[in-house]
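Pasting as-is:
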Amino acid sequence: VQLQASGGGLVQAGGSLRLSCTASGRAFSGYTIAWFRQAPGKEREFVAAFRWSGGSSTYADSVKGRSTISRDSAKNTVYLQMNRLGPEDTAVYSCAVGKPILSSQRDYRQFYYWGQGTQVTVSS
């Protein structure tokens, strides 16, 4: 599976971005697709996850209520809509695919396919 993440950019605080993660080589069916982010000098952080079969989603507390995961099955793409962005959201965002159990989907070690990352920069 090859993953292509896109949609990052520079946005002012309070703005929105929609990140995309497109898979080639294999469909997402049966997998969990997750977003992680890493800011300079900080550890990788779970952002959100989407279980393709069933369509359930999980969000980190830091983005819950202002972020939404959705999918386009025809395009084999998962989207992460992020609203009310703040400087603390500045990071490289990467999408990943794996088959973690529900209690482990926040653990980046459970994911074995990774996209290249897209930079999100939020100016204050």
